[in-house]
Amino acid sequence: MNVPSPAALCCSPSSCVLVLTENQGAFTSPCYPQIYPNSQACRWTMQAPAGFIIQLSFLDFDLEEAPGCIYDRVLVNTGKTDVKFCGPTANGLTLNSTGNVMELSFNSDFSVQKRGFSVSFRHVAVALRNQKVTISHGNGQVTQVSGSVSIPTLSHLTLCFELERTGNKKKEWIFTYSDSSNNVALSLGSDKSGMKMIVDGVECPIDSILSSANFTSAMKPFCVLWTSSNGRVAAYFNGNYSSKSCSASSGHSVPGGGQFKLGGQHSFNGNIYNLRLWDYAMTLPQLNALSCDTVGNVIDWDNNHWSIQSSIAQTDTSLSCICFPHCIHLTAAAPTSGVSPPSNTPLTPSCDSPGLGCPGRNNTHLHGELSLQAYTHFDPPPRVDSAHRAKGSLHGVAARLKQKLL
User: Fold this and answer.
1) What pLDDT shows up at residue 303?
2) pLDDT tens, 281-305?
3) How far apart are CA 206 and CA 204, in angstroms?
4) What element of type H or E holds 96?
5) 70: left (phi over 0), alpha (psi -120 to 50) or beta
6) Which pTM does this prediction carry?
7) Which parts of 216-270 fold into alpha helices (H)?
8) Were both Cys, which of 91, 260, 274, 342 would link to 177 (CB 3.0–4.6 Å)?
C-alpha cells in the first residue's frame, strides 16, 4: 500500500485554478517537489496578447503511470489539440500553442502519488508585426535592416511607418539610410530649422506638409514619398495627401547597397511600428487602399528583414496589424494570476474587416507563416511491443486493484 510521506501530509496546497497573463513565468503541481496530494483538480490558463503564442516547457515530470493515463494525468490544450501525459513521458518536452491561449489541467485520483511536475512558460511573438520597437539612442542597441536585405538604387519611393512619441527633442531623426561611404542618402527628421527629408544628401524642407507636431503620444500611420523626375516630396496621414517641390533633388537617386537604421545622430524619442519601403511612389488611390499587411517590396516589417535587440521590442495589443490572421481577443478584462478564470469569457476575433487598421483576409503567404510558426511539438513516447504492453497493462491493473482493496 502506498503511504504518503509525513512531508506530503503536512503540505497545504495553494489554489491551483489560475489565469496567468505574465509574459513569462513558472508553476508546479501542488506540494512539488514533495508528492502531490490525492484528488486534485487543477487548471492553469495561460493568456498572451493577441498575435502571440504560449511556449510551455516541462522542466520536471513524474506522475503515476497507467495505460491511457486513466488515473493521474496532465492534459494540455494547445488550442486545437489536447495532449495527455502521465508517468515520465513529458519530461523535457516543449509545446507551442496554436493561438494566444493555452490551458494545462492536472488531475489525481485517491491513491498512488508521485513527485509531480514543474513547468515554465513564455509569450513568443509569432511575427515582428506583433511588436513595436523603441528608436534607440546607441548603447549597442541600434536597430537596422538585416544585411541579407538588398536595397536597390531608388529614383522614387514610398516609405510608411507608424510612430508614437514618448519625449520631445530639438533634433530628432526617425530613420537614416547611409550609402556605402557612410554619407546620409535618405533620412527623415527635424532640427531647429524644422522638419526635413534628406534625399541623396539634398535637404528638402517639408514643414508645410508634415511637422514634428504631427507625431504625438498616440501611435499613428504616416507615409512619405519622393519622385526623382520632378523632385516632388509628399506626405500622407490622417487620410490627407500633401506634396511640395524640392527641385534640388530632381534628377537625383538614392544609391543602393547602403545601411538602413532607425534613428540617427539625434534619435527620435518614441516607438516605431510596421516600417515598410517600396521602390515606387504610390498614387493617392493606392495610399487610400493600403492595408497594414501590404508587404514592402524593398523593406518589410518582418523578422527576416531586421536586426533588433529583444530588449527594445515591446508587445502592445493595440497595434494596428496585430490581429492577422489567427488571434483571440479577450473582450472581458483578463484576471491576474491567482484569480480563477471566468467560465463565460467571450472570445471574439479582434479584426472584423480589412482596412488600414486591419489586414485583408486573403493574404495566404502570411497565413502560412503564422501557421508554420505556431505549432505544437512533442516527441512521441518510445514504442512498446503489443505483448509487452498487454503484459504490463494486466500487471498494472492487478497491482492497482490490490492497492485500492488494501
Assistant:
1) 86
2) 999 999 999 999 999 999 999 988 9
3) 6
4) strand 94-96
5) alpha
6) 0.59
7) none
8) 260
Sign of the torsion angle spanned by Cα atoms 335, 341, 345, 349: positive
Mean pLDDT for the stretch of residues 2-20: 66
The answer for residues whose C-beta is within 8 angstroms of residue 326's C-beta and 6 or more apart is: 98, 99, 370, 371, 374
Percent of the chain with pLDDT over 90: 61
What is the distance between the alpha carbons of residues 335 and 3, in angstroms, rounded to a whole number? Answer: 38
Matching residue, cell 530632381 = 250
Distance CA 195, CA 210 (A): 7
Q: Which residue has the cell 506583433?
A: 130
Q: Which range, of 106-110, 253-257, 339-343, averages the lowest pLDDT?
A: 339-343
Query: So what's the pLDDT on residue 251?
Result: 98
Range(s) within the chain of domains with CATH label 2.60.120.200: 128-315
List helix spans (H) across 109-177. Answer: none
323 pLDDT band, cuts 50/70/90, is low
Pairing of strands 194-199, 184-191: antiparallel
Residue type (1 letter), 176:
T
Output the CA–CA distances (angstroms, integers) from residue 53 to 95, 123, 376, in the order listed.
Answer: 10, 6, 11
39 with 84: CB under 8 angstroms? Answer: no
Side chain identity, residue 314: Q
Which three three-digit cell numbers place residue 114? 508521485
- The answer, yes or no, to whether residue 401 has pLDDT greater than 80, is no
* Topology given in CATH for the domain delimited by 128-315: Jelly Rolls (2.60.120)
6-125: CATH topology: Jelly Rolls (2.60.120)
The average confidence (pLDDT) of the chain is: 79
pLDDT recorded at residue 99 = 84
CA 202 – CA 196 distance, rounded (Å): 10
Nearest C-alpha neighbor of 241 from the set 232, 231, 230: 232
The cell numbers describing 86, all together, are 502521465
Q: What is the DSSP letter of 157?
A: E
Euclidean distance between CA atoms 35 and 324, whole angstroms: 43
The gap between the terminal CA atoms of the chain, to the nearest Å, is 7
